[in-house]
Amino acid sequence: MSYNLPSSDLLIFSGYSHDILYHVILIHIQITRQCVSFFLQIFINNEWHDAVSKKTFPTINPATAEVICQVAEGEKADVEKAVKAAKDAFKLGSPWRRMDASHRGLLLSRLADCIERDAAYLAELETLDNGKPYAVSYTVDVPMVVKCLRYYAGWADKWEGKTIPIDGDYFCYTRHELIGVCGQIIPWNFPLLMQAWKLGPALATGNTVVMKVAEQTPLTALYVASLIKEVGFPAGVVNIIPGMGPTAGAAIASHMDVDKVAFTGSTEVGHLILKASSSSNLKKVTLELGGKSPNIILSDANMAEAVEQSHFALFFNQGQCCCAGSRTYVQESIYDEFVERSVERAKKRTVGDPFDLNTEQGPQVDEEQFQKILGYISSGKRDGAKLMCGGEAAADHGYFIQPTIFRDVKDDMTIAREEIFGPVMQILKFKSLDEVIERANDSKYGLAAAVFTQNIDKAHYISNGLRAGTVWINCYDVFGAQAPFGGYKASGIGRELGEYGLDNYTEVKTLQTLLLKNFVVLSLKCQLYIRLVSSLNSKKVKI
């Protein structure tokens, strides 16, 4: 495998020649691969454990289809141990419960600092395990993790209640109180980032965590576990279990001592999580699920920008984004030109070794996903969509797929209805604004959408009509830790990120107090009443 370093300052190195940089990154990658075996166990109570069953499972390098290493496979018994540790850490009087909110924020800030310090290491682990280009891991994923944790660190001592004027002589106020033990199940498409999205608000508000990481991509989450211990989080506050969904994930969702579960993944599994939660202890649930997001291009859009942004909307992260712009609706007067330009752009996309910093697209995460995507491509051909480019595997080893574009796609085709989660673009034609709004909303999903136009009135007319949790105007995949993210309909329950994300991890308690001056009056009235009753009772006795 070769590692070609571009002349840009992508890695934030400066003052070094190209040859020196080449050797620096080679040495660092070699060190990473020597050290990766250090964090392959289950993390419970700030200690590393083998699985109770002693089972392990392989994690695969999707670029080569070769085994990287064996990781401990957590199951129900391991979840039991982790939940007990989290429950003990949550008890009144524990170091975590006694800790000031500002100090919780300090620990999150320190965790962000350590992740920033080890950015290159984490980016390499993420690329090795997930297959996404190293340039993306280093310049997108890791910085967003750091920003997310720092954002929620700032919230730790600022999540305030309210005073509420109510009738009568009473003082009424609310408190935001921690929920308790939070089960968190994260996906494989953005393992490091989704871990931060879950940990940030949960820890800022004082909860404890039992997290199951995706079996395809456990390595970065386990490395972060070592940093959690390093920065000083008390034992049991964060527990991380690599394992399978039907065993470890199901055990978390159905556990009677887990007070809340947060899941990011497919809508199908979301249904199972919701069912398990409701049939156990009615634990609170946050779900960030699938999508089939409409990306709407009006005839007055800037063509060059619309083509490039639409390419990014679909192909970013190998198409493995829940909010990918996977239904591209183009107004009929510009349809042919848009298709032609999109095909030209897709053919220029660089697919290959994810450690080559010129690579735009790496492999799909595993063979199951690889075969699933090829199956959807075959479905598109059978249904009559016109294949314009791609449609095949892009290498004779690993899980690479060519950037693929279909035109003349109809709304009832499988590729236009189901979430493909791969580098397959479907371009549909529309005439009027009302038509495209109706068609865009004709989906069980409602995660995200986009509109490209130079007419702001049209942009707002369409965005107001779309049933989606996020709508981007003349851009795509713009995320900030400050802005909430989540879906309508079958795309989820609740919101992550921003102030709204804190709601998912707190209970609201209402407290009402009788004002002191009225308490004195009431007390006197009570004393008089007691004397009166005593007097009457005395008279009855004499009679």
UniProtKB/TrEMBL annotation:
EC primary class: oxidoreductase
Active site per database record: E288
EC number: 1.2.1.3
Keywords recorded for this protein, A-Z: NAD, Oxidoreductase
GO molecular function ontology, one term from the record: aldehyde dehydrogenase (NAD+) activity
SUPFAM superfamilies tied to this protein: ALDH-like (SSF53720)
A Pfam short name: Aldedh
Entry superkingdom: Eukaryota
Domain Aldehyde dehydrogenase: 48-510
Signal peptide annotation: none
Annotated family: Belongs to the aldehyde dehydrogenase family.
Protein name: aldehyde dehydrogenase (NAD(+))
Organism: Cyprinus carpio carpio
Organism taxonomic ancestry: Eukaryota, Metazoa, Chordata, Craniata, Vertebrata
